[in-house]
Amino acid sequence: MRYFKRLFVVTMLLSLALHSVAFAEVLDVDTKKMRTIVQENIGNPDFIILDVSPPAAFASSHLEGAISLPANDPNFEASLQNLDKSKTYLVYCHKMNWTPKAVAVMTKNNFTNLYSSSEGKAGWMEAGGKVIASGPYQVDTQQVMKLIADNKNNPKFVILDVSPEPAYVKAHIEGAVSLAARNPDFESKVQQLDKEKTYLVYCMGGRWTPEAVNLMQKYKFSHVIAAREGLSGWMQAGNKVVSGQ
């Protein structure tokens, strides 16, 4: 019996030691160190820059060469199985909202060569680091329906109708806020919006949405989603609209 107790203790200690080694491979890096790591690994096929921001933030801007794997996706952990665990990953998001979760899940799944960006894309950009844009993140009507349903009680999710006011008064998605893109004060009003929130932007037929989204990206809004089919697609799918202010 004493032998088995000793064996159990040794096994537990070994397990803890191995667990500690795995975590020791996760290195938190600030922006200065992050830039050095990126520069030293240009052209290295075993080094991956992993952006775990939501898709809209990645589309808005991301580090050159980064691949997108949103940590807020319910299938994030399953998607990790497609990655090579022997490679080194620099993990970041916009402002550290998702990086800790992503790194924790990756560590749990035996990824041991991880750099965790402590200041994210925001710190990278503030230091003058280069980012590129994929253009606005666009969604079809089915995706719009899911986004609205998933964010029904989310105070940081805003449905933004950029149609002219008469069109908004006639019909709009319930809960949408009106901010007409054709108005002369549109740009100044955009600058007053909370950049930390996520905006689902639409108009009636898609005419004003690109202009609105491009302006929001100009002012560094990182979470902007463009409804490709607009209110017309929403209505054609049989969804509810409301009228009035």
Name of the CATH superfamily of the largest domain = Rhodanese-like domain
The tally of beta strands, per DSSP, is: 12
CATH top level class name of the largest domain: Alpha Beta
Q: What share of the residues does DSSP label as strand, in percent?
A: 15-25%
Q: Report mean pLDDT, rounded to a whole number.
A: 88
Helix content: 40-55%
Q: Per the principal axes of the C-alpha atoms, what is the gross shape? A: elongated
Radius of gyration: 22 Å
Estimate nothing, just give the exact number of structural domains: 2
Describe the strand arrangement of the main beta sheet, using strand numbers. Answer: 1-6-5-2-4
Element order: H for helix, E for strand: HEHEHEEHEHEHEEHEHEHEHEH
Supply the helix-strand structural class.
alpha/beta
Number of helices: 11
How far the N terminus sits from the C terminus, by CA atoms, comes to 78 Å
CATH topology of the largest domain: Oxidized Rhodanese, domain 1
Largest sheet: 5 strands, parallel
CATH architectural arrangement of the largest domain? 3-Layer(aba) Sandwich
Low-confidence stretches: 16-24
Report on the structure:
- The chain has helices at residues 2-24, 31-40, 55-60, 76-80, 99-108, 120-126, 141-150, 165-170, 186-190, 209-218, 230-236; strands at residues 26-29, 47-51, 62-63, 67-68, 88-92, 114-117, 131-132, 137-139, 157-161, 177-178, 198-202, 224-227.
- With 245 residues, it is of the alpha/beta class.
- The chain has 2 domains: 20-132, Oxidized Rhodanese, domain 1, CATH 3.40.250; 137-236, Oxidized Rhodanese, domain 1 (3-Layer(aba) Sandwich), CATH 3.40.250.10.
- The chain has a 5-stranded parallel β-sheet with strand order 1-6-5-2-4. Strands 8-12-11-9-10 form a 5-stranded parallel β-sheet. A two-stranded antiparallel sheet has the order 3-7.
- The radius of gyration is 22 Å and the shape is elongated.
